[in-house]
Design a protein that fits this description.
Length: about 240
């Protein structure tokens, strides 16, 4: 039987770059905003995980261009935590503009280039082992064998592709560092990445008040290749979930 996710609509240029939200819908259970196909798959996967004692909760889903721009500028100006490749906290004021741009890109996408714009991607934790109070930080140590999300990490590694999901940042490829919490729904994300381009990203950024914008403009082709294109290829069985 053909998968209900096999014919996901092609996203427009505004949707691809987070400047429109016409391709996503809000949901209360689980609380998130995703492309309808990704949402259906997440709900199905969440029920399966719950039967195995894991309560999947998305703590980040669709993110608009404006939201990503705010995150970027706040990190550039030192208003949000900026981490290095070794997870250490950096002093933004001590870095050159080029160093700030490079540091941000290790963990955060350029506005217009985030996979969260597509409605295909979400960051997941296990509610049963998450902190009861305060913000939830996403750290790789928590997904290690002795971390609070070890069971979730193992379950996703074994089962996520059954529902069309994969981890685009599964290993260090010299760009974005591994993010075991970041899941991408292949039937939407695959066509979206294929439709993206450095020129489209440049157009989306043209009028944006982007901190470090001159550096980004100078290096955009290289940054696009390193931080947008260089991700895991989604497994063939993640393309058409059962």
């Amino acid at each position: 039987m053909q998968s209900p996710y096999a014919n996901s609509a092609v996203l427009s240029e505004l949707e691809l770059t987070g400047r429109a939200s016409s391709h996503v819908q809000q949901c209360e259970q689980p609380r998130c905003t995703l492309h309808c196909d990704a949402l259906l798959a997440l709900q199905t996967m969440s029920r399966a995980a719950l039967a195995d004692g894991i309560e999947i909760v998305p703590i980040s889903s669709f993110r608009s261009f404006e939201q990503q721009l705010w995150i970027w500028n706040a990190k550039y100006k030192g208003e949000r935590i900026l981490r290095g490749r070794d997870n250490s906290v950096l002093d933004s004021a001590a870095l050159s503009p080029a160093e700030r741009v490079a540091a941000i890109l290790v963990w955060s996408a350029l506005p217009g280039a985030s996979r969260h714009h597509w409605g295909s991607d979400c960051d997941l934790v296990d509610r049963r082992t998450a902190p009861a109070q305060g913000p939830i930080d996403l750290l790789d140590v928590d997904f290690a064998p002795d971390g609070r999300y070890a069971a979730l990490n193992d379950w996703l590694g074994e089962r996520a592709t059954d529902y069309g999901f994969f981890r685009p940042y599964d290993q260090d490829r010299g760009g974005v560092l591994p993010e075991p919490w970041h899941l991408s729904f292949a039937p939407v994300a695959g066509p979206a990445l294929a439709a993206m381009s450095a020129d489209l990203l440049r157009s989306a950024l043209a009028q944006a008040p982007l901190q470090g914008g001159e550096i980004v403009a100078e290096q955009l082709p290289e940054l696009y290749e390193r931080y947008v294109v260089t991700v895991a290829a989604y497994p063939s069985r993640a393309a058409r979930p059962a």
